[in-house]
Design a protein that fits this description.
497 residues, alpha+beta, OB fold (Dihydrolipoamide Acetyltransferase, E2P), BirA Bifunctional Protein, domain 2, 8-stranded mixed β-sheet, 16 helices, 36% helix
């Protein structure tokens, strides 16, 4: 370890000395700008099919910036590759073709340095698209060397911790985040075309609500009041339905103070949307159309590879009742599941910890028995009222609610329901949640009296849904760890210089 640290310090010293010599050439250490005409990706895409004869017959002048990823020094000439973290482009520098200062600069460059290149395109004898350099511009020195290989299981945490290096040397990583961007754009386009209005709601809430989750707490000094980072935008979006916005959505950052795993990050991105005069079956049809449309738009197909599974998205997607799913995969009977003590004992047998309520135990058994089986798109519907405090009950069976969860690849991708708009029943449900909180459930919903007041103003029949953007991105990029699709995932502090 000490030898590695000494080597690292020596390389840093060498590069600092080279930067000093670059300054001695009369060049700024950190120039303000480079006038460029094309990116590396644009050049590669535009001219990859051009032959050597075509490039010679119609010379193409380029000014392109990039990071040096490979250098082959041959004395009076050098080849190196520059990258924009998406594509690579070869560069050829010959002593007699560039100003003397530019050639001296060349000898002071290292892997990872940023340069600007001005020249013309040609093909080498081996057929590689290359820029013949006419002038070389120094843009930034990489004082810390980039690793030659920055991937593999041994470096996973380092990749997530130093995403700036990960992106610089792994083009596939950048493509994941470009896909994520395309997914969000496709979602917005889909909803905008259907008359939804995008809105913004508060991130700081006086009462955490809209989901069953443990919040992060903070304090506002000027108002001398505790506030919570939002666990969901739901209750604010439904206030807008009350106010007359019949179709609203928000792509929001959400914060939940819960465990970290390959599927959970304390802050994540969620789409929530609400549609007046609709019920949960309407949103199931809409979601199926949206997800398959996004896959077609982003991937060009409606079949996903996720891990070892090939998952077709073609519908219609099957529907399975929540209690029936647990009964089917656990071997427990419907009478067993109605027995609170038996359900609790079964959950404890498998290691459930935390709040020991019937609803928590049911959810634990669902995760244990059902979740791994739901690889192909499946709607789990009609959840117990006890675990769905904001959902409307079935008219013919008050023990269950009009709710669905969309499961794909063993992950919950979406959760939607017919919204409870009866203020009396909603208040009763909140009070039931208070009992669960007293029993030790820190995720139970608090009573939000202002939301009850909003419902008393009259909310029309409404359906609402939340979609996990991170998990949808995991599916569409075949990423089995949520940290792979979050640019800067939360990690434990790590001392480093």
């Amino acid at each position: 370890m000490e030898e590695k640290e000494q080597e690292k310090n020596e390389l840093l010293k060498q590069r600092e000395e080279k930067l000093g010599k670059i300054i001695e050439l009369g060049l700024p250490a950190y120039p303000n700008k480079f006038e460029w005409t094309q990116t590396v990706r644009e050049i590669v895409n535009a001219y990859k099919m051009k032959s050597a004869e075509e490039l010679e017959g119609q010379p193409v002048a380029v000014r392109v910036p990039g990071r040096i990823m490979l250098i082959r020094d041959m004395g009076k000439a050098s080849f190196f590759h520059i990258s924009d973290a998406s594509e690579r482009l070869q560069v050829y520098v010959r002593k007699e073709l560039v100003p003397e200062r530019d050639f001296k600069l060349l000898k002071l460059l290292d892997l990872g340095d940023h340069v600007g290149i001005a020249g013309t395109l040609f093909r080498t004898k081996t057929g590689e698209l290359t820029v013949k350099v006419e002038s070389l511009h120094f843009l930034a020195k990489s004082l810390l060397p980039l690793p030659e290989k920055f991937h593999g299981l041994a470096d996973v945490e380092l990749r997530h911790r130093r995403r700036y290096v990960d992106l610089a040397v792994n083009p596939d990583v950048k493509r994941i985040f470009e896909t994520r961007c395309a997914i969000i754009k496709a979602i917005r386009r889909f909803l905008d075309q259907r008359g939804y209005v995008e809105v913004e709601t508060p991130m700081l809430h006086p009462i955490p609500g809209g989901a069953l989750a443990r919040p992060f707490i903070t304090h506002h000094n000027a108002l001398d009041m505790d506030l919570y980072l939002r666990i969901a935008p739901e209750l604010y979006l439904k206030r807008l339905i009350v106010g007359g916005f019949d179709r609203v959505y928000e792509v929001s950052r959400v914060f939940r103070n819960e465990g970290v795993s390959h599927m959970h990050n304390p802050e994540f991105t969620m789409l929530e949307f609400y549609e007046a005069y609709s019920c949960y079956t309407d949103l199931m049809a809409l979601t199926e159309e949206m997800v398959t449309g996004i896959a077609q738009n982003v991937l060009g197909k409606t079949e996903l590879k996720y891990g070892e599974e090939l998952i077709p998205l073609d519908g219609p997607w099957p529907r399975m009742a929540y209690m029936e799913a647990i009964e089917r995969f656990s071997g427990l009977t419907r009478n067993d599941l109605a027995d609170e003590q038996k359900v609790l004992q079964e959950a404890l047998r498998w290691g459930m910890s935390g709040a020991k309520t019937h609803s928590k135990a049911l959810d634990y058994l669902f995760d244990r028995y059902v979740k791994p089986k739901l690889q192909r798109p499946t709607y789990v519907i009609d959840h117990p009222t006890s675990i769905s405090p904001l959902s409307k009950q079935h008219p013919d069976n008050p023990a269950i609610v009009e709710r669905f969860e969309l499961w794909i690849g063993g992950m919950e991708i979406a959760n939607g329901f017919s919204e409870l708009n009866d203020p009396v029943e909603q208040l009763r449900r909140f009070e039931e949640q208070t009992k669960d909180r007293t029993a030790g459930d820190e995720e139970a919903h608090l009573v939000d009296l202002d939301y009850i007041r909003a419902l008393r103003c009259g909310m029309p029949p409404t359906a609402g849904e939340g979609v996990g953007i991170d998990r949808l991105t995991m599916l569409l990029t075949d990423s089995e760890n949520i940290r792979e699709i979050i640019l800067f995932p939360l990690l434990r502090p790590h001392e480093e210089r």
